[in-house]
Amino acid sequence: MATDKTQHLQQVLETHRMAHIEKLLDKYKEKRQEVKEALEENYKDKIYNPINSGSYAKHTAINIKFDLDIVVPFKRNSFDTLEEMFNDVFDFLYEKYKDVAEVRKQKVSIGIIFDADDNGDEINIDVVAGRELNQDQYTEDHNLNLFVNSQYGLLDEKTYIQTNIQAQIDHIKGKNNERSIIRLLKIWKTTNNESYKSFFLELITIKAFDKESISGNLWDKLKSVMEYIKENITKDNFTLKDPGNTNNDVADTLEDWEKTNLSNKMSNMISNIENNSDNIKTYFPINEEFEEEDENKGQYGLKDASIVAPSIPNKSQQFG
Amino acid sequence: MGFHNIEEINNIVSTIPFIDVLEKFKQVGIFLEGKTSVNLEGLNESLNFDVQIFPQYPLKSNDSEAIKFINKDLISYNHVMGDGSICIHTLHSPKLKQKLLADFESLKAWIEKYYINKNIDSHYEHVIINEQPFDDIYYSYQFTDVDYSFSKGEFGQVDLTPLSNGIYKKKPISNFLIKSFQPLKKTIKINSKWSEYYMNFEVKNIGLFLFLEDVPAFHNRFAFSNWLELENYIPTDFLQFLYDFQKRNKKHKNTFLPIFFGYKTVENEIHWISTLVKINEIPTIGIPVIDSKGVKLKGQWESKLINRKINWAITRNSSYKYLFGRGTFCDKITNARILIIGVGAIGSMVAKTLVKCGAKNISIVDYDVKEPENVCRSEYNFSNGLYDKTFELIKTLQENSPFVNVNFHNNNEYFESFIKAFHKDKEAKKEYEKSLNQFDIVFNCSTDSDLMFVLDQLKLSTDLINLSITNHAKDLVCAFYPNIYNYVQNQFINILDNDVDDLYNPTGCWSPTFKASYNDISLLTQYALKEINRKYEENKPKDNFTLSINSGNNTNIKFTQY
Amino acid sequence: MKIINSHKNVSLEYEEDLILKIESLALKHYPNEFGGFLIGYYSDDLKTLVLTDVLSPNEYKSHRVLFERSAEGIKEKLLELFELNEKRYYVGEWHSHPDASSMYSLTDLNAMQSIAESETIRIKNPILLIVSINNQKLKNYTFYLYDNNTLFEYGRK
């Protein structure tokens, strides 16, 4: 029994769309709004408007594992140190939500996991607190310094990292082909319990499209990106510049042996799928929860997670 | 009776440049004997060897060369046997000339290495002992490591537990383990580090021990053969102890008493050799104590060793290092606490292989019973009859290694019914996770898809490895947590050729099983275990893999890494 | 007006005015065929497609039983529509069948297939509207939903 790889991948993307979990997503959005407003009320003019970020904002979210992110840009004079800022935001959120959620310090963010509601849904909101580098500079270029709470790539514990959430979001804007591949790789990573970071997969996919001519059907494109990863990740001079901070090389977050493993993994995946197309189901499984609904679910089909780009007819068509 | 062409041999030997023939080969009984002298650079004077050629030559006999180079003056050198023959090993050759030249060449190599350059080998050569039966019965004693360092001259009692009796070199043999040592002057018992199973054996015999520290052998190699030679090694208080023991045990006068002498070998390792003496025949005499003026002190006697041949019994160092010296799995596996769920065909092979490869701590769980028809493709024995699988396997595993502690999971229904019924309950789930996480490695060999599904849902810190086989043992699927259930399902349903129409239904539709022989299953299981061991040893990622047998013109096994 | 596609269980909404606009475009080119792009938006739950407008091609070839529209210059207009606060975008095609039924032809199916498979088209189910006209008026019209190489008709509830 052979599987049509492209058709399968399309169904994989389809069944992992956020639209399938609209109700849950609404709960998320509601909670995010609530957290946002609480932060605004507490910090008033110490902060600029909080912005949404993360995979949902980038339209690369998948419905099996996601969270909503809020970035809170603090003004330069709000706190003396980034650590104070980080701890203050944590203390505030902890006090506010300790009875209804688990609030914990993460690498650069504070995670709030709300207790499951009556439907068993756990809402997961990540708050990233950042501070502008200089007085009033944020409004001009959106650069922020984040406090780093633990080992993060090559950086030592308890230091800071400069980033630009807006630039990261802009980096993927309009890249529909890339998005499909990023979502597929995220589905692979999540369902196969791989530890690679989504941001890493996102950047390397965009770079692959940038460096190679990637075309053809969905499988052709996915395969080209996997081949690019396989060929390049172990190269000494391979870098992945964080669009939010070009001094930050995201490829450095992997140890050499992890890079070798990733390269081998890509090689195994490609050859196993080429040898037997059914193997694609192991690496890229359909989200069975929404499989039934796929054909007659009562939804118009999209090639992306949502309407992120207009459809443009690009050639003449004859009608009879 | 001539076995060889003497002239040809003499001709060949005469052409060897470093050899002078002193006496040509001639037939002596069934042997050929000759005398040669070796001249080599680095030798002050030439070395003479009597050369003896056996009828089998140029073939080997009983794993020894059928040619001997003998010089009794060389006995103190390495690799020289008690009769003065040099221990050489050369390549096999059925061609007389080639073999003869090679053997003289290796004599030359021995002279250069051990006589001229006085090399010391890095590996330890055991003392050469002529092991004897006693009253026509052999006795063997196996010992292992203890957590104790004996001091020179320390002595006391040894507790022995019997293994089974058998036949050895065509004579009866009684086999024993040394269970513990009790030094006379201390109140401690020094236990051997055998597994619990063996330590629970009853003590049926005792012996005496004396730690000499020094090697009771000439040239560190040829064990003493007369009690008098031990005179400077055995302290008088031990002889007194021996005498007292004899007095106390007069009614057992014809009983053999094993006496163990311990000494240090390399890296502070201890070796024991043993002899047996009848209680009324201990090799001492009492002589009066004499003062400095040569006057006998009245009523004072001391024991002295007498001139009598020592017969040595058999001892073996069966510590973990020696027992598993020829090969084990890597430490990460042998030292791991391992659980095996399901000990049918695959599980019992996994268990036994792990134990044979040095695993020290294994737990097993299975609700099933062994039926006679299970025997043909598992590690179960027909002789045991019907038996709970777990109990029989524990026995088998313990019989295979004195260093494995085998436990059986306290509830055989645990994975079969409880975990499936309660896995959705949060508290119960935590309990299951806890009970599994106390192991380092868990093999699920149950081939139970439901259990696979349930286990995949748990948050485990243990390494869970799933092994399943398709019908006819065409393929083996090895999957690692947390990528087990979906992967195995996809393999079985879509990828592999699992023909389930042709299952074996021995006793009705309720117990179909796959068709495959012991050879089919063990081939794939062993291959999988080898790969699993490699992943642990080389720290490779624990990625799933499959093995598939291709039977075209030849049998091939295709390995696919996922 | 709201009509249902029972194959995929989705609905389509449009104002009568839009049909009037299409009718007048079609009649203007009678006896030749004419057509263009359908503009609209999906509801957030993707269950409903709302048609808002049509966009006529800048260049086209029109015959009695053949209509060929080019895509020339359309990109800019569509990008503009997409930037609106109330996002509008391409959702399908329409054309007229003068003095013929509103049944689609093989040419129509092939065109829709080619459109759906085009990389620059980001929707999976473009729709096709065929209006049957005579020299005086619109006789009837049919909406089709493209899905899996097939066109499925919308029907009234």
Q: Which labels suit this protein?
A:
heterotrimer, A: Poly(a)-polymerase, middle domain, two-stranded antiparallel sheet, 10 strands, 15% strand, C: 157 residues, alpha+beta, Cytidine Deaminase, domain 2, 8-stranded mixed sheet, 3 helices, globular
Q: Summed up, what is this model?
A:
Chain A is an alpha+beta fold and 320 residues long.
Summing up helix and strand content along with how strands pair, one would put the structural category of chain B as alpha/beta
What general outline of chain A do the C-alpha atoms trace? globular
Mean pLDDT of chain A, as a whole number?
90
How many domains in all of chain A?
2
Largest sheet of chain A: 7 strands, mixed
Structural class of chain A: alpha+beta
pLDDT under 50 segments of chain A (min length 5)? none
CATH superfamily of the largest domain in chain B: NAD(P)-binding Rossmann-like Domain
Going by CATH, the architecture of the largest domain in chain A would be: 2-Layer Sandwich
CATH class of the largest domain in chain B: Alpha Beta
Order of helices and strands of chain A: HHEHEHEEEHEEHHHHEEHHHE
Assembly type of the chains comes to heterotrimer
Question: How many domains in all of chain B?
Answer: 3
